[in-house]
User: Fold these one by one.
Assistant:
Number 1:
Amino acid sequence: MNTTNATNATVTHSTAEDAGPRVAASSADPHVAGPSADPHVAGPSVADPASLHTSVIAWFDRHARDLPWRRPEAGAWGVMVSEFMLQQTPVARVLPVYEQWLARWPRPADLAASPSGEAVRAWGRLGYPRRALRLHGAAQAITERHGGDVPRDHAQLLALPGIGEYTAAAVASFAYGQRHPVLDTNVRRVFARAATGIQYPPNATTAAERRLARALLPDDEAAAARWAAASMELGALVCTAKSEDCGRCPIADRCAWRLAGKPAHEGPARRGQTYAGTDRQVRGRLLAVLRDATEPVPRSALDTVWNEPVQRARALDGLVADGLVEPLDGDRYRLPLT
DNA sequence: CAAACGTGGCC
DNA sequence: TGGCCAAGTTT
């Protein structure tokens, strides 16, 4: 296991306006006052970032899951594939698909050489199948623009289809050991509780959260990468959304939320994502038929999955518009061969 | 910035 | 039973 020691976090200024992070100064930083600085400055405060790093990384060394994309042989491509699949999808459902995917397409160029429809088919029931299309598109771009190697540069990663702020940082950090704030839903929840003292982070990532993540990032590159994986794992295994297990938390003694008596979340709950009866459900049914078919499917067969004709047609049109389905002559459809 | 975008397991 | 949640991105 990694034995890198955590180092002091970068310390940033905060102002009354930005409500930014207020991280206690390390003795090496002359610019920032200590924990008892201006009481009017709002925002989270972490007394000792270095001890947080040490505790969370030590916990990670003992409890990290042995996931295939964390093994050295996974490589940057394996990391990237896993990140696409893990977007909004639980680890347990990703594991079998990931293994099949890497066995079939061990390098980006292998995937790029296959039809996009095969990527959609291999995606199976992971959900959000446009991710499969984007991963295929990213593999093509990597093959064409980067010589077949997953780029190391954050900006180049961000330019690939399906890669946003989180995934670019994750690949750069996990695959290449770079120093980036990796703000996923797990880390955001850990920070919200431990540093800000609230049960849940805001619905959308805020500038204040980015500042906090930046401020808490260890200076040392290897330590920062370790911290990213460790803080994420803590949120996934211990500091979970519903049934957090503070008894197993390495920083429970410093957690602002716990020390405040674990006050319940205020404000509106996250908008529930209704599913039954939506276009998404119809799209899912239509695509399931196409995935299981080896030959073009006549429209009449697709018509059986949903009884409401207007919504059914809208869903099918949407799939075609998204490039997930290819219309053929004779009112037939299939996964795209392009 | 809100809304769209799949699927299945859990309490 | 049904709402909530899961390593987000795109428009």
Number 2:
Amino acid sequence: MRFLLAFRVLIDELHAELARRGHADMRPMHGIVLQAITRGGSTAADLGRLLAVSKQAAGKTIDGLERLGYVHRVPDPHDTRRKIVRLTERGADSLEQSARIFDELRARWARELGEDRLRALEDDLRRMTPPDLFRLDVPGWFGGMG
Amino acid sequence: MRFLLAFRVLIDELHAELARRGHADMRPMHGIVLQAITRGGSTAADLGRLLAVSKQAAGKTIDGLERLGYVHRVPDPHDTRRKIVRLTERGADSLEQSARIFDELRARWARELGEDRLRALEDDLRRMTPPDLFRLDVPGWFGGMG
DNA sequence: CTATTACGACAACCATGTTGTCTATCGTAG
DNA sequence: CTACGATAGACAACATGGTTGTCGTAATAG
């Protein structure tokens, strides 16, 4: 299964470059979570639903991201139970850098394979995969329990 | 990145079918480990080297596989320190079934995309990824520590 | 024979996921 | 307005999988 390897190679290159640009403590997971937060995962419970994990797991992940300074929690004025998760400046910067690096990596693939082949590859993958993109349970899915 | 999603879709379909054929307790990791064992991962230390994890981690994984009845350990007559890991009949069967299901899944992709496109996709991926295929540290790599 | 290397086991620890329980708060049905 | 069900988040206990470190024992190199 080359797909995992391809993913891994890309993500490794992304994070190597990200480290050079000041985000050495980012992990592959973090990027996914940060993106999910910008797409509506405003609280731990929301994030859990979005990423198909329990709210507890989402909460722990947010803890980690908060420790690293990529997000912070602010109380929701309309609902004292909720704590809204927001990207810090550092968190937003990491997403910007990631997007930029992704573009560069794609350009490299285009140079290597040709724009036509790459576009065909992307089309084929889109065709064979479901549209719902976010899933965080990779560690548990890959290894975990039944 | 669609690659992870494509991998995930395929692996999920593989394991759904595998479950129907009597291997419901297999996890994605297990298949990789079993394959690695047939490719020379005869002991915990070997396996660790092959999969780029510590021998302790490999040992724990073998423990799990042994509990599930996919492998068993036999003492090495030439080296009393070593314990050779062997696939049980059940373990070998799971690999056979997996190979068969993979062929079926590839055939489905070929019907969907056309044999030419699929072959092009495979060529392109091979071109863009390193040849070394085995890597077990996915959970730790994806989420784990820095 | 001795010194180094290597194997496997054990322990402590971190990261991630799970379920279950608890309190506080929201929202709505009555 | 009150009471009850649903929800947010915190905490605890546990399983998996990864790490490093230590240790006893066995193979091997000098």
